Amino acid sequence: MTSSRSLLALAATAILSLGAAACGSDDEDTTAGASTPSTTTEQTTATTENGTTETTPPADKGDVIRVKGGEPDGGVAKLSLKSGDDAKITVESDQEANLHLHGYDIEKVAKPGAPAVFEFKADAQGIFEIEVEDTGVQIAGVEVR
Ligand SMILES: [Cu+2]
Known about the structure:
The radius of gyration is 22 Å and the shape is globular. Helix content is 29%, strand content 36%. It has helices spanning 2-33, 41-50, and strands at residues 63-68, 71-72, 77-81, 86-93, 97-101, 106-110, 116-121, 126-132, 137-144. By secondary structure, the protein is of the alpha+beta class. Residues 10-36 and 38-48 have low confidence and may be disordered. Strands 3-9-8-5-6 form a five-stranded mixed sheet, with no helix packed on it. Strands 2-1-4-7 form a four-stranded mixed sheet. It binds copper (II) ion (CU).
């Protein structure tokens, strides 16, 4: 009994030290790639306006638009981008919706649990609509300046 316990303890120590070693080397890798450009100011405001209880960090989703029953939750979202930005806009919908970003002419399908993600280089200036293509309901106005 005692011997099997100490064997377990040995095994645990071995695993722990292995894990620690792996973490250490991982850290160095992630720090190198973690320099993200600062595009976070407006995202924070958008999340607060919606006042939803969801606490999913918007960090890697870009701007998030929520669609409920085919309508933009909290009204038509106003997004503003700077010309040349690498834009990322995530649209979450509680029902399947064909979405269309005008101007850049990108079409994406959002499904419950499978948001549509628009990723594009904001190289054309102007104000562009995102609409639910099936119904023509506008969910966002994206300004690029
Ligand atoms: Cu359209």
